[in-house]
């Protein structure tokens, strides 16, 4: 099962190394207390998480801008749970959410162990669609920044995964080649198909263990990367 000839390993960050859902839930708990937002957090997250994913898809496809993403995902969720929140409150929450999000630093199980395992063997990199102002803070606050030779985010490049430009930008930045590189991520469209389309290998991090019809390399736990690398 080992993938031969790999020199450069590219990771997605959110939902792959950095436990976005856990850290996001802690962030909402904090900012709701700060602003005295009396909602049931579990109910809020039940609606917010799929709404957020839908808005990220629109953002990835260049159909909405960053401000719309940040505002509408909150507004739509509050509407779902019939909580009256005016635009001033939503704007304050959206700002505080970004400010506090990277102060929480939960990683997926075995993240540090697998990075320690890979670091002596490969050049490690990040390619992320996340916002530039928070992604580096996430890496530093979770104490994994030092593992990575390069960090490429969509705001640097002006396009988002799965656009081939972001993959080519990341490769060119470190003089890596598609045929000796592998992309590891949780998003089938953005990470896996995006990488495969430019000739990279790809490993799908299927951490939710969903039934998946795609016949490609996949793992449920980061430790399973040792089977391939």
Features:
229 residues, alpha/beta, Rossmann fold, six-stranded parallel beta sheet, 46% helix, elongated, 5'-nucleotidase activity, Putative hydrolase of the HAD superfamily, HAD-SF_hydro_IA_YjjG/PynA, PGP-like_dom2, HAD_2
Number of strands: 6
The proportion of residues in beta strands is: 5-15%
Give me the secondary-structure category: alpha/beta
Q: What is the overall pLDDT average?
A: 96
Strand order of the largest sheet: 3-2-1-4-5-6
Low-confidence stretches: none
How many strands, which pairing sense, and closed or not: the largest β-sheet?
6 strands, parallel
Q: Supply the number of helical segments.
A: 9
Topology pattern, helix = H, strand = E: EHHHHHEHEHHEHEE
CATH superfamily grouping of the largest domain:
HAD superfamily/HAD-like
By CATH, the topology of the largest domain is Rossmann fold
**What percent of the residues sit in helical stretches (DSSP H or I)?**
40-55%
Radius of gyration: 18 Å
| Straight-line distance between termini | 9 Å
Number of domains: 2
What is the CATH first-level class name of the largest domain? Alpha Beta
CATH architecture of the largest domain: 3-Layer(aba) Sandwich
Morphology call: elongated
InterPro entries: HAD-like_sf (IPR036412), HAD-SF_hydro_IA (IPR006439), HAD-SF_hydro_IA_YjjG/PynA (IPR011951), HAD_2 (IPR041492), HAD_sf (IPR023214), PGP-like_dom2 (IPR023198), Pyrimidine_5'-ntase_YjjG (IPR052550)
Keywords: Hydrolase
Protein name: Putative hydrolase of the HAD superfamily
GO molecular function, one term: 5'-nucleotidase activity
């Amino acid at each position: 099962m080992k993938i031969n000839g790999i020199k450069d390993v590219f990771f997605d960050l959110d939902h792959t190394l950095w436990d976005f859902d856990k850290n996001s839930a802690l962030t909402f708990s904090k900012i709701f207390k700060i602003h005295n937002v009396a909602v049931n957090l579990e109910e809020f997250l039940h609606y917010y998480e799929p709404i957020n994913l839908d808005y990220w898809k629109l953002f990835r496809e260049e159909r909405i801008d960053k401000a719309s993403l940040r505002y509408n995902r909150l507004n739509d969720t509050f509407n779902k749970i019939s909580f009256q929140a005016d635009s001033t409150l939503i704007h304050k929450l959206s700002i505080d959410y970004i400010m506090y999000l990277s102060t929480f630093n939960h990683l997926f199980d075995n993240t540090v162990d697998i990075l320690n395992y890979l670091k002596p063997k490969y050049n490690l990199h990040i390619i992320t669609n996340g916002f530039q102002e928070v992604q580096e803070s996430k890496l530093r606050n979770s104490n994994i920044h030092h593992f990575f030779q390069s960090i490429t985010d969509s705001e640097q490049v002006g396009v988002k995964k799965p656009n081939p430009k972001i993959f080519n930008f990341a490769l060119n930045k470190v003089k890596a080649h598609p045929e000796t590189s592998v992309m590891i991520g949780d998003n089938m469209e953005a990470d896996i198909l995006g990488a495969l389309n430019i000739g990279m290998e790809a490993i799908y991090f299927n951490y939710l263990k969903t039934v998946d019809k795609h016949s490609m390399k996949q793992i449920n736990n980061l430790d399973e990367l040792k089977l391939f690398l």
